[in-house]
Amino acid sequence: MQLLFLLGGAWMAAEMLVDLNRNPSWLIRRALPAGVAALGLILTIAAVLPDGTKNAIEQKVIARSLANKESQDATVDREMIAGRAREWVRRVSILHPRTAWVYGLWVVGTCGLLVATGEKKNRSLAIGQSMVLGATILELGTLFHSWCTFSDPANLRPPEPSIDRVGALAGENRVLQGGPGSDFTNTFAVPNLLASHFIYSVEAYESIHYHSIFSALLALPADERLSLAGVGIAVQKSDNPPAEGTESWPVVEQVSGYNIRRNPVATPLLVTGTSPQPDSPTTLFSAVQAATPVAVDSRTMNRIQFTAPGKTGWLRMAMNWHPGWQWRSSGGSWQSFAQGPDAAAYLDLQKADGPSIEARFFPRPSWVIWLSISAAAGCLGFLIWRGISGLSARSVTTL
After folding, report:
1. How many C-beta atoms surround the C-beta of residue 324 within 10 A?
2. For residues 303 and 316, what is the distance between their CA atoms, to the nearest angstrom?
3. In this structure, are residues 272 and 308 in contact, taking their beta carbons and an 8 Å threshold?
4. Residue/partner pairs of 76-79 with CB below 8 Å, 24 or more apart
5. Which of 118, 269, 291, 378 is 20 to 30 A from 156 in CA distance terms?
């Protein structure tokens, strides 16, 4: 949604750029470059400040951030807030790689704006618009890399010790939040924040398919439903009662005012069984508990690799089934997972060509992706061609 919002803003900016070319604004042509230059001066000064001054500013920002957060919630994670404030201060420097990159794009875009709205209306317009377009595309790419990432969680900044600890306790399992007395304001961490740290939550954003394991097993007892959904730990505020189905789970740790309960019978992400594949919710729990766990060799946000113990029986992957989930073995052709009675993804190991199996999630077929890219490239080329043709026609008319 953020990317779509910015794309809409980029379209509006393109319309404003065309209007500026027709009616150049003295304020925009003078105030915008002055603002960009002033920002560059501030970033340069911040980069050459003495270390003592930098440390003093950093401590003041941290103290102010903690005071603001603690006035809203007494159980705030001080280390997390301090880490964010510290990273923010360090980014206010022209020597910070990300700051230098983004500021450089601002400079390129501003120069393009000045060229496009200058007195020379012929080739300068195309050159200036190309500079603005290039800077905009690179900025959107920077946003995409920052927020729509399948990267390793170690690359995400700043680190948050309490969330990292929850992730270490959860392992390959999911995290349950909420329960009696819980709402958005006192939840440990919203699901998209956990997802950015590669931590899966039940009923969260691990799949765009809303028919989840958790919702498909409403008829089962709460503890069995949580186990089949892959919930390994539950996180609730210390002064709130435990969530339904977690009452008997032992409290293994406390983090930032929250109790962490561990599920003693958590279902692994991957299990395999030789008995008949369960075909009803009533036989699921016993069949999955009797199945053999399968270790994960590697895992990213949309890809899982593992080694099957044999070529007989069935394998259950505790992920919400979706047509976008596919698997292949030993580099063979991609095949679709089967949907189980619990809305999880299953595969028949007899169809595997070898023990090495790779699963991937792509919500759209590859031909749709390539068709969209080709259409976007074609539209962009057409707009550039029309712009250059229009400039050439106006030049001939002027002559």
Report:
1. 17
2. 15
3. yes
4. 76/256, 77/160, 77/161, 77/162, 77/256, 79/160, 79/161, 79/162
5. 269
Dump pLDDT digits (tens) for 260-315. Answer: 999 999 999 999 998 788 888 888 888 898 899 999 999 887 899 999 888 778 99
Which amino acid is located at 264 in the chain? P
Instruction: State residue 21's pLDDT score.
Output: 60
| pLDDT above 90: residue 395 | no
Counting Cα atoms < 13 Å in the Cβ hemisphere of 345 gives: 22
Per-residue confidence (pLDDT) for residue 396, from 0 to 100:
47
Which bin fits 178, alpha (ψ -120 to 50), beta or left (φ > 0)?
A: left
| DSSP summary character for residue 310 | -
Tell me the CA distances in angstroms from 138 to 133, 150, 247, 262, one per residue in order. 9, 19, 50, 44
Place 164 in a pLDDT band, splitting at 50, 70 and 90: confident
- For 36-75, the DSSP string reads HHHHHHHHHHHHHS-HHHHHHHHHHHHHHHHHHHHHH-TT
